[in-house]
Each structure stands twice: as C-alpha cells, then as structure tokens.
C-alpha cells in the first residue's frame, strides 16, 4: 500500500511537471511583429565578394522567424536567429536590387525592404 | 516490327539542343522538336542532361574573375509527341531538375535546388510541298509554362531566380526547319531558325525579363546503317540582355557558337537511344559571365503506332475470309501506315497488315480482291510491289525516311 502511494505520487509529480514544461513553451508572449528598422552597413557595393553588405532587421513581436529574399544576388544568414544576413552579387546583378525581409510569428507577419546598388 | 520508325523521327529532328543557360532558370533550351510523325503515331522520350560550368569570360576572353567555383545541374525531360495527321503533330514536355547547384568561391557554402521546372506544349506543322527535291519544311510553335517552384528556399533564404527550378516566366518559341536529303536520304542537311520570347516576371519580389533568344542551327546527318544515325550540328545562338527593374543588365546575354555531335541507335520494339555532347567553340558574352564547359545529353524514346482502323474490326468474321499475301517494299513505320491505309481502301478488304521484316502485306477480304488495282495504288504511292515497280517520281514523293531503295 505504501509503495503504491509512493509510485502514484511520483507519477502525479511527473505528470504535472511535464504539463508545466509544455506550458512554458506555449506561453511565450507574442505580439503582431513590427519591423523597427532594416539597415545595412553599405548601401552601394561592388560586384563580387570583396565588400559584402551586412543587413540587419530589428523587429519586435516575440518568437520571430526571419525570411530574406532577393531576385538576383546571394544572401547568407550570419547569425542564429536569422536577423542578420550578408549580401553579395555577381556581375550579372549590376544595378539596384531590392532585398525583402519578412518577419513572422503566430500573430502574423511584417515585411520591409531595402535597396542595395551593385556597381562595377 | 517497325525498326526504323523512330530513327526516321530522330534523323529528321534536330534533337535536343543542349545549350544550358547561365544566369537563367527553367528548362535548358531545346530546339528542333520532332518532325516526321505520321498520323496516329505516338512517341514518348526521356532525356537526361548534365551541364557543368566553371569558366568566366569577359567578352570572348577568359577572365580571372571568380565568384562561383562552378555550377552544374542534372535535368530530366519527359516528352510526348503525337501525330494528328501526317503533317500535324502535337507535343508536350515536362522538365525536372534532379539537382541544380552552385558552389561559391569565397564562402564555404553550396546552394542546391531541385524539383519541377517548366512544362511546354507545342504544335508542329510539316509542309511537304517540295517532295521532288527531297526537301521537307516544317515549323513549330511552343509555349513554356512555369509550373515548378519559383520560391524554393535554403534555410531562411529564398533562393535567387537563377537557381530556381522554374523560370517563373511564360515563354513562346517559334521555329522553322528545312531538311534536305541526299543520295536517297543516306545523308541529310537540316537548318533551323528559332526565336524565343519571354514574358516579363513582375511579382512583389521579382521584376525581371529574360533576354530573347535567337537560334540558327545546321545539322549534317548520316544514316550509317539501318539502325545507326550520326550527326553533327553547328549551333549559333544569340541571347539579348536581360532586364531588371526596366533596366537592361550589362553582364547578361551574348553570342554563342557550339558544335554538337550526336548519335542515335534504333533498338528492338521501337526503342531508340540517342546521345549528344555540346562543345563550345566560340562565345562572346556581354560583360563578365560564367559559361558552360560542356553539356551532355542521353535520351531514350519509344514509338507507338496507334491503329484506329484495326480497333474497329470484328475479329470473329476474319476466319471465314479469303486470304492473300503479297510483296510490298517499304522501310519504316510511316510506310506501314501508308501501305495498310491504302489496302483498307480496297473494296472487300477487312484486314491488312504489312510486315517490315518480310516486306509482305497480308490481306483478308470478302469475295474477290482486285489485285491489279491495289498494285497500281501502291505503286502510285511510291511502293514497289509484287506486280508493279513504282515510278521514279512517285518514289521521290515519299517522305525522306521512307526511301527504301537506298537503305537496302
């Protein structure tokens, strides 16, 4: 009887502790994402890999996912959360390129863009 | 049963022109298409293409500039062709990138993409108004439809358009081809022109237009044996500059001259294999561009002859009919179609089957067969037979792949 009580108590403890853990994941407070700023250290870069532009997206809203896109040229994520990317381009991309950053969470998404000029 | 049927198709077509496109997504450009499809014939072909690029050019000279170490792709094309009539055929294509990748020189990263590319539907019209000179003229129109992915991602990055499997753009290509046979089609010379126009892509992320593409090709073919056909093509292409945000982009487009040896071999049961390699001879690009080192293509095709007439036959009554087997000369599936169609036009004929191996036409008919009339009809169509030899004019009117006298 005593052993049964101890096992039951342990199972109850395990159950509630697992519930607490789930709650801690799903209870992250999120708000509709807002992009405060989309910045770059270099608005004009030469084609090639010599001087990449570093782009940062500063956003609020919690539990954010960052998606980057550009029609030509190459973006590389440079930090863990994806809020910073590096942009370079080959000669075929000379001209103005618009880089779009979309930030999203469970409440929605926000988009901003920045134009980088690729020169010869 | 019809061992030269597909060889005819391949010999007449300019095969797949395997120039790949740098800085341009979507299926590799194909030209020529299939001509010589006879009525109710159906062909399925599958082609594998491998392309590798690792050389930068500035104008026509090698450049020291390196941005990508290399790019390459493995691509599969599935195509269907159907002869609506002896002059008109339709085709569909479906492209799939097994792997498409680029390797950067300045960062330890490789971008990969794959999946459905573009689909295409086409129509080919075969003009045969110059039969006496053994000249065939055909034209085609093809519409490419971007059905594949155009927003494929690598991690949290949407890939740029030049590595996307789909071009994202509708393209319309018109082609015109002239084919002339020599020495009874033992040798042939083909030439074609084509123009490809791309629709402007205008989405939230992309404002881009591929440069229009103009091709001129010449091909010399030799029917080495009944089953083997070899060819050499000289391909000239000019691609205009692409446009981004309404501005022409400097380092896009150029002029290209390539040699393309090709070979095709007819196997049993209407299977055929073909292979080609695309070798750059001269390139003059705008600005600095990465260009192809080589493109390899390997294809397999199978042809079918769909017989609508025989499907309507009541086979139960054939047993009671009279039979006759006669000699009729011919060489291919198109000959078979013609011979059998003419035989069915004879009064009383309920069954007709021509055999390529034995050159015999087996007939089943009610009552009496007017053999003399049938022989005349066949000889007028160009086929020597048990009773009459076809006149030279009638023989020369045969389609170039049906010239059985020179192939013996």
**Helix amount of chain B, in percent?**
10-25%
In the CATH hierarchy, what is the architecture of the largest domain in chain A at level 2?
Sandwich
What is the 3D form of chain A? elongated
Secondary-structure arrangement, i.e. CATH architecture of the largest domain in chain B: Beta Barrel
Shape of chain B: elongated
Total beta-strand segments of chain B: 22
Describe this structure as you would to a colleague:
- Chain A has 120 residues and is of the alpha+beta class.
- Helix content of chain A is 21%, strand content 51%.
- Chain A has two domains: 29 residues; 86 residues, Sandwich (Immunoglobulin-like).
- About 8% of the residues of chain A have low confidence.
- Chain B has two domains: 301 residues, Beta Barrel (Lipocalin); 98 residues, Alpha-Beta Plaits (2-Layer Sandwich).
- In chain B, strand 18 and strand 19 form a beta hairpin.
- The two termini of chain B are 17 Å apart.
- Classes of the chains: A alpha+beta (120), B mainly beta (408).
- Chains A and B meet through strand 4, strand 5 and strand 7 of A and strand 8 and strand 19 of B.
- Strand 4 of chain A pairs parallel with strand 8 of chain B, so a sheet runs across the interface.
Outline of this structure?
The complex is a heterodimer of chains A (120) and B (408). Chain A is α+β, with helices and mostly antiparallel strands and 120 residues long.
Write the layout of secondary structure elements.
The complex is a heterodimer of chains A (120) and B (408).
Chain A (H helix, E strand, L loop, with lengths): L1 H25 L7 E7 L3 E3 L1 E13 L4 E5 L4 E4 L6 E6 L5 E11 L2 E12 L1
Parallel strand pairs in A: 2-8
Antiparallel strand pairs in A: 1-3, 3-6, 4-7, 5-6, 7-8
Chain B lengths: L4 H8 L28 E18 L2 E2 L5 E16 L4 E17 L5 E21 L4 E11 L7 E2 L2 E2 L12 E12 L4 E12 L2 E2 L4 E3 L3 E11 L4 E12 L3 E2 L2 E2 L5 E13 L4 E15 L2 E18 L2 H4 L10 E6 L5 H12 L4 E7 L4 E6 L5 H10 L11 H5 L7 H4 L1
Antiparallel strand pairs in B: 1-2, 1-3, 1-19, 3-4, 4-5, 5-6, 6-9, 7-8, 9-10, 10-13, 11-12, 12-15, 13-14, 14-17, 15-16, 17-18, 18-19, 20-22, 21-22
């Amino acid at each position: 009887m005593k052993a049964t009580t101890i096992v039951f108590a342990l199972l109850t403890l395990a159950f509630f502790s697992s519930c607490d853990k789930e709650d801690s994941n799903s209870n992250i407070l999120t708000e509709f994402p807002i992009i405060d700023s989309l910045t770059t250290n270099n608005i004009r870069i030469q084609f090639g890999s010599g001087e990449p532009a570093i782009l940062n997206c500063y956003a609020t809203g919690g539990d954010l996912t960052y998606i980057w896109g550009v029609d030509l040229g190459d973006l590389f994520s440079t930090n863990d959360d994806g809020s910073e990317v590096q942009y370079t381009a080959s000669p075929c991309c000379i001209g103005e390129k618009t880089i779009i950053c979309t930030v999203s969470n469970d409440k929605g998404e926000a988009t901003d863009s920045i134009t980088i000029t690729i020169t010869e | 049963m019809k061992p030269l049927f597909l060889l005819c198709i391949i010999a007449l077509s300019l095969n797949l022109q395997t120039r790949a496109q740098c800085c341009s997504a979507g299926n590799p450009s194909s030209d020529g298409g299939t001509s010589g499809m006879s009525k109710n014939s159906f062909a399925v072909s599958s082609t594998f293409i491998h392309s590798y690029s690792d050389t930068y050019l500035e104008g026509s000279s090698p450049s020291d500039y390196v941005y990508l170490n290399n790019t390459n792709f493995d691509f599969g094309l599935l195509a269907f062709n159907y002869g609506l009539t002896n002059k008109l055929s339709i085709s569909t294509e479906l492209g799939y990138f097994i792997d498409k990748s680029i390797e950067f020189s300045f960062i330890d990263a490789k971008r990969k993409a794959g999946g459905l590319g573009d689909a295409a539907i086409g129509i080919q019209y075969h003009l045969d108004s110059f039969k006496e000179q053994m000249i065939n003229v055909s034209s085609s129109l093809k519409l490419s439809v971007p059905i594949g992915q155009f927003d494929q991602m690598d991690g949290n990055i949407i890939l740029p358009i030049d590595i996307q499997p789909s071009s994202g753009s509708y393209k319309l290509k018109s082609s015109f081809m002239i084919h002339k046979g020599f020495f009874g089609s033992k040798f042939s010379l083909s030439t074609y022109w084509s123009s490809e126009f791309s629709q402007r892509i205008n989405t939230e992320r992309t404002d881009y237009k591929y440069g229009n593409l103009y091709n001129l090709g010449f091909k010399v073919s030799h029917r080495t044996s009944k089953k083997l056909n070899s060819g050499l093509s000289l391909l000239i292409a000019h691609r205009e500059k692409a446009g981004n945000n309404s501005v022409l982009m400097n380092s896009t487009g150029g002029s290209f001259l390539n040699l393309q040896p090709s070979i095709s071999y007819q196997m049993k049961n209407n299977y055929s294999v073909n292979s080609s390699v695309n070798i750059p001879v001269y390139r003059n690009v705008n600005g600095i561009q990465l260009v192809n080192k080589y493109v390899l293509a390997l294809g397999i095709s199978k042809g079918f002859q769909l017989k609508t007439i025989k499907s309507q036959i009541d086979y139960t009554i054939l047993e009671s009919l009279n039979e006759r087997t006669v000699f009729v000369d011919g060489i291919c599936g198109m000959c078979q179609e013609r011979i059998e169609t003419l035989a069915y036009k004879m009064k009383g004929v309920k069954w007709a089957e021509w055999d390529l191996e034995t050159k015999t036409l087996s007939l089943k008919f009610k009552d009496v067969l007017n053999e003399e009339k049938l022989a005349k009809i066949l000889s007028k169509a160009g086929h020597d037979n048990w009773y009459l030899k076809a006149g030279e004019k009638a023989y020369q009117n045969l389609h170039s792949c049906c010239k059985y006298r020179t192939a013996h």
